[in-house]
Amino acid sequence: MHLHVASGYSLRYGAASPAALAERAAGLGMETLALTDRDGLYGAVRHVLSCADAGIGAVVGADLKVASTGEERIVVLAAGRAGYRSLCRLVTAAHAAGERGNPLVTREMVGAHADGLVVLLGPWSDVGRAVAGRRPDVAARLLRRWRGTVETAVEIVNHLDEGDGPRAARMLALARAAGAPAVLGNAVRYLDPEDHPVAQVLDVTRRRVPLDRRHLDDRTGQAYLKPVPEMRRVAELACGPDEADALLAETRRLSERCVLDPARDLGMDDVHLPSAGGDPYARLVARCADGLARRGLDGSRTAAARLDDELAVIARKGLASYFLTVAEAAALIRARGIRCAIRGSGAGSLVTYALGIGDLDPLRHGLLMERFLADSRDGLPDIDLDVESARRLEAYEALFDRFGADGTACVSMMETYRARSAIRDVGNAVGLPPAEIDAIAKAFPQIRASQITAALHDLPELRQSNLASGRLEVLFRIAERLDGLPRHVAMHPCGVLLSNPTLRDRTPVERAATGFPMSQFDKDDVEAMGLLKLDVIGVRMQSAMAHAVAEVARTTGEEIALEDVPRDDPATYALVRTSRTLGCFQIESPGQRELIGRLQPRDLDDLVLDISLFRPGPVNSDMVTPFLEARAGTREPAYPHPDLEPALRESLGVVVFHEQVLRVLDVMTGCGLSKAEAARRSLSHERGQAVVGAWFRERALARGYDAETVERVWRMLTAFGAFGFCKAHAASFALPTYQSAWLKRHHTAAFYAGVLTHDPGMYPKRVILDDARHFGVPILPLDVNRSAQAWHVEPVSEGGPAGIRVALSEVRGISDAEVHKIVDARPYVSLTDFWRRARVSRPTAERLVLAGGFDGVHTGALRRDLLCRVGALERSAAPPPVVAGQLPLDGADGSGLGLGLVPADDAAPGGLPPMTPAEVVEAELDVLGMDVSRHLVTFFDGLLDALGVVRAADLPGRPDGADVLVAGVKVATQTPAVRSGQRVIFATLDDATGPVDLTFFESVQDRCAATVFGRWLLVARGRVRRAAAARPGSGSASITAYACWDMTVLHEEWLRGGMDAVRAAMAGPPRPGRPVGRRIVHPTGFAMSPYSDVGHAGGAVKRPPAARLWHTSRGSSGPTP
Amino acid sequence: MTRVFGDPVDVWVSDGRPVRFVWRGRLYTVRRVLEHWVTTRDWWRERQPDGEATGEREFWRVEAAPGREVGVYELRYDVPADSWMLSRVWD
């Protein structure tokens, strides 16, 4: 019955979810509910679905800003299919008319889309303003104009603010005098009266001001979803009992008229594909036949039978034009020279292989179509394309060009409040100083806002921070209540809608920050609306590989087609087996390096297994160990029944893949793979497990399997089924994994140039750089005459080994324009020459100097002197103007023979001391974010040797269980889900000889967590843990740590008081450990920490912290070099 | 003319609205509610805000009479304290 309701999709305005509103409305006995979010239909699809679930009628509208001098708003409701279409088009027009983020309508625009629309004029409309300003004559004239434009009703709202009641009465009198319909509204913003502080925080956050009564829209706490009797009472207070009844009756009538039918009015009952024309199915059949022939499969009877099966399903589901569309999209992207690979279950289809969408032969790798496309699967199948991240928008352009701006749109996504963002906004609202807000927000890991209080209690790194001292209680309590509210509309990173020109009748479209048209619906919404969403995912590794291939072509002339590289190169697998896989796709994390060490992959299928095994499910079910033992030959593979051997042989009796679950179900019940896929999907929830369990037992027993076998197989399926991995997906990941490893093995320098340029992995670039050193790739320093925009390969000397040159874009704060100017005006003969012709900003010039960019120009000059010179150049007059017709003084040929270009002048010594190696590295870390000239840890070698620290390179030689000290720069921390349900912290240190992987269990986190998350240079003590099936020397030994310290603190102690002081600093009393939070137990019995897999507390690890690394005191310029 | 008071009063409430009150020993009968409004508390200024209370302050502007002469009175109800006061009088 409520006609004017904002949900959280009214950004920084509404405070309830559409589902909660619908459920409450139904609970209050209302038969309809409208959702009229501000500026768009972002929540409309959820609202329609929620109302259907709650059994009430859904009304859809929008609360739109009207172009005016003040802030005027109207509510626009849609009646019927025509109304919904008009609403979509009006909202799109509003976003096109206003500047981005400030959509506007005019009365004329509303008039242009009046078909099926009903406008409500409330207190915020021009009519309402005139009534409030006691200008009934003006109000009557404005109302007449609206009624001449579009169907209009007056909306009576009384929020019980001072003056609201009399105003409502005058508004009603106006409507009655004009003979206009009048309805009752409450401009709802939240569910319950107690929610009003949240709305008040949103009011001031929207206006970017601190909390104060005069900045609030909501001063009365009345904008809740009021029950009908309360609405009647408020109306009665202002307008009298008879009018209250009349208003309620009119409100009901209008809302019933505006209820939309999801199928008839919104088109949810159909799919809306691009128009194909002709007979798409016949075209698809022909294209597939051609494709099989091209792939050399035309003689295969297996392939022909499989193709027939797949085509039959496609025919039954009427999806031929879908496949043709996706094939065309992939071809369009590749035609622009953009690398494009298929990911996900779609790789399991022979049709996608034949059409050239994917490059993996599903028959050869045992992939099933049913996981992707089956009669038992509803909706459109999901095909995802991976493209080069750096060229993702170019790929979108190709699609928009082909499918037309009317029939194409990006998908949006809502960024929602989480702990850190909620703390920031509430902190600003209550007026905390910005620095304090920043410190508080960063103290939290990247958890949900609703976990704030629990985290303060659970997490050792927060317990020690004194944040829970009570002073901040209000902040945290309100911040928790912002949990999950949308706060920003963004372009979804990959979804593109491909449809026909009716798309604009189905979804409002606005401009994304990138300029692309973007639907206001998110990925779930568009699926419900029957729209085809193609995921075009930007993958940095694809860009990195493209860069590497281009560098090989540039330096050697060799053209590599990665797709055609044989997939059985022994040298590549030999490299993978060493676990030295930093920079490679999917297999560089500490856990993966350990697993690879144990699994020792020999071919692509092993990589597929490896990627699938490294998931929470398999790890938690401890299926990894039995599998590895069977693989190592120390245990016979066990099959629950001989019939299952064919399905499980590839993984030696263990269920790893979804595809195997399907096969097992099919073998035991004879149900066919399509039905098996439906059963598999039901295994993920408890209710489904019960139903499928009963069915499975009955069918399997009926087919003659004994009760014990049936039970054993069922236990295996429930344990692994829900967590297994789609083999097609793993296989499509294994391909770039192999390709990246192949590049690392055979084109090492180009590989690092690609990885350093596009940064695809989890580690800071300085780790990749160090890895390059270990692989013998020389690192060439920044040089204004040689460094390019990106990292590139450069022979160290004529015909010498290939090194990699630091890229200009690594310089902190440098703009793309500056990079281009520097590259265009090369070469430079001096700093002065550079300053005059490259025209970069002073900070950029200074950073180039500090990071050594001029060391090659001014051999032997001191960076400090050059730095002074930059200041002098800036202070000196602007460069002399170039007079037309006269040769420029600097020399047009760039030889720099002009005035003031005497190099000696530039580098005139100024009596400053040279930078120490430590200062050089510090400057490099500050400017480039990486230690180029020398590894950071080498400055601490004295201390580390005195302590007897074991280096990464020496760890493989240490026995299992040995107690050791290790040290290094923190390069990664993770808290993945693990089998015990603990929050385990995995940290990786880099100590100049390689990575050291540390594990901190909950029992030691009280004394370690704050240091691990908060410090950058660490010393840790722990026991060596040797991976079970690892071969000696394979490098996969990790440390179970039980103590850790800040290396710089110990170093200061060492300088101050020698080893005695260091030992004293390390000898703190141990604190007892305790569990970190409760466990979440899944129906499959898998326990999980609520803090697993969340971003850690503190700043990002990817760049070094801004603070100085070591204190310089009394003549000391850092650690001893 | 308007006069401002802050006197505590006893108020009888029926059907959610004030019907009679006693001020300085005299009984006033409410003839008509002229206006009713509410304000929330400035919870962000308070030392220990519980943040859960609602309708923090209610105002009732009423026509009331102790005998024959009718005046306009503004009654204020503080929800958390459950207390009434007479805030303003027009007579």
UniProtKB/TrEMBL annotation, chain B:
DUF6504 domain sequence ranges: 1-91
Record-given protein name: Nucleotidyltransferase
Record-linked InterPro entries:
DUF6504
Q: Which GO terms describe its molecular function?
A: transferase activity
Query: What's in the keyword line of the UniProt record?
Result: Transferase
What is the superkingdom listed in this entry's lineage? Bacteria
Originating organism: Actinomadura syzygii
* Keyword Transferase found: yes
Short name of one Pfam family for this protein?
DUF6504
* Keyword Transferase on entry: yes
